[in-house]
Write a structure and sequence with these properties.
The chain is an alpha+beta fold and 195 residues long. The chain has one domain (30-194): Sandwich (Immunoglobulin-like), CATH 2.60.40. Helix content is 16%, strand content 30%. The protein has 4 helices and 11 strands. The protein has helices at 2-16, 22-25, 121-128, 164-168, and strands at 33-39, 43-44, 50-58, 63-66, 91-97, 108-109, 129-132, 137-144, 152-160, 185-186, 190-194. The strands form 3 sheets. Strands 2, 5, 6, 9, 10 and 11 form a 6-stranded mixed beta sheet that branches. Strands 1-3-8 form a 3-stranded antiparallel beta sheet, with no helix packed on it. The protein is globular, with a radius of gyration of 23 Å. The chain starts with a helix and ends with a strand. Mean pLDDT is 77; it is low at 71-88.
Length: 195
Amino acid sequence: MKLLAALLLLLLPSCFLEPQTASDRAPKQPPLATLTAHVDKVVYKGGEQIHVTLTLRAGPRGAYVSKWSKVSPNDNQNSLVGRQMGNVSGFDISLLTLDGKNAETVGHAGVADRFGPTPPPSERLKNEFLFLKPGEEETWRGSVDGTRVKPGKYQIVGAYVPDYDQVRELVGLPEEQGLLIADVVRSTPVTITIE
């Protein structure tokens, strides 16, 4: 009888546990990259420009990012490339309410596109992307231009957003080794106050 009770105590708890799948037991891969957002100050006047620095840091295996994410020294002088400090592929800044809703009336992002026919995927990876070594950083500066919002607390959120159609064609190339950033990388929100 004691043997039966001991056996029941051993087997009964396993009936209530959820089965694990192979993916549950697989080791979790660290992210290819992380993104941080930094603002110059935390209190702004209504309509004041909010300067934001985004820093994309490659994870422990490194990562491929768009070469167009490099800020050109001519960006702030060339009206064709966008706003103040560079309109570059991949980066985006959002001003959100504390519950995560968009607070802006005008969007802000860095984008780039090509003119002419698309080269083969292997050539594109080599010519349009750069490899960030583990821990290496890519920095972008931009701003939220004087958005008029009600006084209160808001969040600044940065993102590295790959061009899905173009990047998806490159994912799986042997030379990218699973290190091409193909999904959005978001920063932790930074809380600011607008008076």
